[in-house]
Amino acid sequence: MGRPAWLNEEETRAWHAFMAAGALLNRRLDQQLKEGAGISHLQYEILVRLSAAPDRELRMTELADALYNSKSGLTYQITQLEKAGLVHRRSCANDVRAVYACLTDAGQRVLEQAAPGHVALVRELLIDVLTPDQLTAVADGLGAASRRMLGQP
Amino acid sequence: MGRPAWLNEEETRAWHAFMAAGALLNRRLDQQLKEGAGISHLQYEILVRLSAAPDRELRMTELADALYNSKSGLTYQITQLEKAGLVHRRSCANDVRAVYACLTDAGQRVLEQAAPGHVALVRELLIDVLTPDQLTAVADGLGAASRRMLGQP
DNA sequence: AGCTCCTGGTTTGAATTTGAACAAGGCCGG
DNA sequence: CCGGCCTTGTTCAAATTCAAACCAGGAGCT
Hints:
The structure is a homodimer.
Chain A: H1 9-37, H2 41-52, E1 57-59, H3 60-66, H4 71-83, E2 87-91, E3 99-103, H5 105-125, H6 132-151
Antiparallel strand pairs in A: 1-3, 2-3
Chain A binds a DNA duplex through helix 4.
């Protein structure tokens, strides 16, 4: 390819900012959720997906894909959430292999209680810091990058 | 605050794209570096910082801060890198408590051998996917967000 | 010196993540 | 219906991460 081998100053700035923001933001969100609701950021995301799904339940694999997480990692987390009573497993009638993770009422309550503070923090630390143009650029640019990575696995 | 409680469609798109890109990119980079050079992405970043530092050495704390990583996490990684012969520890004459992590020649070689492929992948998966405007917006916007998070610890 | 508080790194143990191996069902051509 | 092959989810051991507790060593004050 005719691409330059290294990154110029602007590209380096973007790359570093991207990595730094990701690391810092994740740590903050994790901390807040653990203190406030006793769940990790990953667990919060699991609850969000389940809550938004029809019948508040999803197959393990669907969930793993949606979270860009390994299957074994998800098995672990669902087990934890099940112990905490926020989720329960249900096996599928059609396909014996399949397992549905279902959000319990307790899980829904924890989610509803945690969501406002979580969203407020996402806003404060990221969304509201960006100008409208930057917001659009991030959505478009990083959205394209994500799709690209999902496309060529 | 008079801020809306939830995120609108555009904001949600940006937020999801940001999280997805971070997760996917990290996984890819980690994979490539492990296959190609036998080191993790975090270890690669450690080598990069050391290589760029005067005398190719940095204090443990400086390194931990630069990587947005916990001190204990860094202790672990430096121990691993030391076992692999890519880094060695040196205690400071002035302050007995302080420890310098120094890049060895072997470490420098591993870095030089891994860097081109790594940069090429960063380019392919992120940098070259962004338009020039998007690149600037990411650098500015996420840079501002990072500084903000570092400012109010 | 003696005392207290701050700093730099390490240790420790629990929680989590990872990837490979596994068990069991499905799916499909022969 | 059989056999090979793909898919689902779990299990397992090893590697990594995290946070809290822990050692010293400095720094400043009396």
